[in-house]
Amino acid sequence: MKGLVIFDVGGVLRDSSLVLWEGYKRGFEVLGLKFNFTEKQVWKLRGIGKYNNGVLGAKALFAISKSGKKMDEILKAKNSEELIDKIVEENVGYEDLTKVEKIGKIYREFFNSDAAGDKMRIFPDAKNSIRRLREGGYALAIFTNAAKSSVKRDIGPLGLDNFSAVLGEEDVLKKKPSGEGIIKIHYLLKLPLESTYYVGDAPTDIIAAKDAKCKSIALLTGMGARKNLEEEKPDLIFEDLTSMTDYLVG
Fold first, then answer.
1. pLDDT digit string (tens) for 97-135?
2. Which domains does the chain have, with CATH numbers?
3. Nearest CA among 14, 3, 16, 249 for reference residue 133
4. What b/e readout covers 104-120, taking b as 16+ CB neighbours within 10 angstroms?
5. Measuring CA to CA, how many Å separate 48 from each of 51, 57, 89, 229?
6. 234 phi and psi, to 5 degrees?
């Protein structure tokens, strides 16, 4: 066995950007609020630090919308997370928390629905990359902060039997950026952490890998911007699954 590759799901195996965007849009519209963000803007916002979280993402979108600040300028800023923190502090009062929670609830219900499954898109190179890694002698697993039901709903075309373990949010006490899920897979499969790679698309994925003391791989196909990913100093960074697989398989 060459090693173990553990995958995050969103931004790595599946493109969930449209589902994130529509989930938040539905939440805003139920509350009678305008939703003027693009799919890409929502996707990249969720790749910033603590805002890689459904409810905190809702809070950030609510605050930015209320402030009138331009999302593209926020995303390009070097200190984007701190800038969003300030916008949230200045624009989300106690009286707004119920609205934010409502948006987050509607978003989450949609994300886990069958209707959302119809809008999820597996990355074109995912199936071939999974096959090549398996043939190249790697064990494969999945650990995501999403519900395991959504993984099983969307990853079927890749062959769930290709993955020796699949862990979701319900399988851990602490979600990422904790490395708990990675460590749990390590104990389940009895494979060494020094030959384990965790593949993600957001800074929280890199932090989780470091917390678990395994190698971190960042992909640029997902929500994380290169500048935010590089700040966390991943062991390896690749444009996509194909280039990562080329490196690992040789």
1. 999 999 999 999 999 999 999 999 999 999 999 999 999
2. 3-15+120-249 (3.40.50.1000), 17-117 (1.10.150)
3. 249
4. bebbbebbbeeebbebb
5. 6, 9, 17, 9
6. -65, 155
Beta bridge partners of 219: 238
Check residue 111 and give its pLDDT: 96
140: three-class secondary structure by DSSP:
strand
Residue in 24, 67, 28, 30 with CA at minimum distance from that of residue 46: 24
Q: Are 151 and 142 in contact (CB under 8 A)?
A: yes
State how far the alpha carbon of 212 is from the alpha carbons of 8, 142, 145, 160, 206, in Å. Answer: 14, 15, 15, 24, 10
Bridge-based pairing of strands 14-15 and 121-122 is: antiparallel
Q: Is 1 a residue whose pLDDT tops 90? A: no
Quick one: DSSP state of residue 233? -
Angstrom distances, CA of residue 54 to CA of 27, 95, 146: 12, 20, 10
Cα 236 to chain centroid, rounded: 17
Torsion-angle region of 241 (φ positive above 0: left; ψ -120 to 50: alpha; else: beta) = alpha
Going by C-alpha positions, the residue among 163, 84, 128, 108 that lies closest to residue 240 is 128
Region for 216 from its dihedrals, namely left if φ exceeds 0, alpha if ψ lies in -120 to 50, beta otherwise:
beta
